[in-house]
Specification:
9-stranded parallel sheet; single chain; 360 residues; 3-stranded antiparallel sheet; alpha/beta; globular
Length: 360
């Protein structure tokens, strides 16, 4: 099983942004040194109580101080972005990181985010699916014309009767910079990603409807940290059934999930150091209308959190692996309220006594 780190931004609006981001960079750099496989960042957009963070800029900062860890977004709300810009961002980052990018995308759950961009909230699913189609096609062909409901690329693509057309090959083939002054009916987005055909796309499945979208487009799914263990198992059972109906197997895909994890010398110490911070995190989710279950520490430790000594954490992760079939766990270890040095200690203990056992 692969392992990774996850950073969300709940409860960070009043924090010292420079100090917080500095701690995040330190933790990712240590994660790279310790052998974590992946690090994903959430990307909230004008959500109450949360910093609005641009993931490409964070990845760019981290890329220069890390060497092996994969980097990416967990839930970039592509319905609020021009998809050509998203394609450019991830292609350049994939080149700069020598092919270490993961493209995690999401539909978006907050009306405030869509209101900020003057985008109708009830269009989010249609915009998400169209943007996802654009991204996959733009990365797969030399040049394209895309005539979608929300995106015309280039503007002359409105002439098309179909939604998409790749540029037909004619001699002599002209490279993009040789086309100045000529009619632009197709556009190429360069550079291309280093990974072929493009970076892995993981679809955030906070909403179960997006599981079908992921299967139809051949993408992996990413159950978020807010889901209970039982809900994660349910999402992967639905994913497996939908893949079987499509004649495919879950074994073809990386199967990640995000969990709230903290490791200490004993279960009591882990709960003492991290329990209150994770409880505050779920209270924040409740205030945002994202979470409706009890926020008692007893309930959360049974259904949502993985806190304990290395044996406890390993056993709980192995149980999830067996029941859900996951092969990659991304750990949120640093919600606001846990001291930076305690997070680093948890990471070291997890790397020294849990990662090696998960890989074996």
């Amino acid at each position: 099983m692969r392992t990774g780190l996850y950073f969300g931004w709940e409860g960070t609006a009043g924090n010292d942004a420079q100090a917080l981001l500095g701690q995040v960079l330190d933790q990712v750099e240590l994660g790279d040194h310790l052998g974590f496989d992946t690090c994903l960042f959430a990307e909230p957009q004008f959500e109450h109580g949360r910093m609005s963070v641009s993931v490409p800029e964070i990845i760019g900062a981290v890329a220069g101080t890390t060497h092996g860890i994969r980097l990416g977004s967990a839930n970039r709300v592509i319905a609020l972005q021009h998809p050509a810009r998203v394609v450019e961002n991830y292609a350049v980052l994939d080149q700069l990181t020598n092919g270490r990018i993961v493209c995690g995308v999401g539909v978006g759950q907050h009306e405030s985010s869509f209101a900020a961009y003057d985008t109708p909230f009830d269009e989010r699913f249609a915009r998400f699916e169209e943007a996802l189609d654009f991204m996959r096609q733009a990365w797969s062909y030399d040049a394209i014309a895309f005539n979608g409901e929300f995106t015309k690329f280039p503007r002359s693509a409105a002439r098309l009767e179909q939604a998409f057309e790749s540029e037909p090959y004619t001699k002599p083939y002209l490279l993009p910079w040789q086309r100045v002054g000529k009619p632009v009916n197709h556009l190429a987005i360069t550079p291309r990603p280093l990974q072929l055909p493009y970076p892995p796309i993981w679809v955030d499945v906070t909403d179960p409807v997006t599981t079908t979208t992921a299967v139809q487009r051949g993408c992996a799914i990413l159950p978020p940290a807010i889901l209970s263990h039982d809900a994660v198992i349910d999402r992967y059972q639905r994913f497996g059934a939908a893949l079987a109906d499509a004649g495919r197997s879950a074994e073809e895909f990386e199967r990640p999930l995000v969990r709230n994890v903290f490791v200490a010398a004993s279960r009591e110490a882990a709960i003492s150091l991290a329990g209150e911070a994770f409880q505050a995190l779920f209270r924040d989710h409740t205030a945002q209308g994202e979470f409706a279950d009890p926020c008692s520490l007893e309930y959360l430790t049974e259904h949502h959190l993985i806190l304990g000594d290395p044996d406890d954490v390993f056993d709980q992760l192995k149980t999830l692996q067996q029941k859900a079939g996951v092969n990659h766990v991304l750990c949120r270890m640093a919600p606001p309220g846990i001291a930076h040095l305690d997070v680093l200690a948890s990471m070291r203990l997890f790397a020294g006594e849990v990662i090696t056992r998960l890989r074996s």
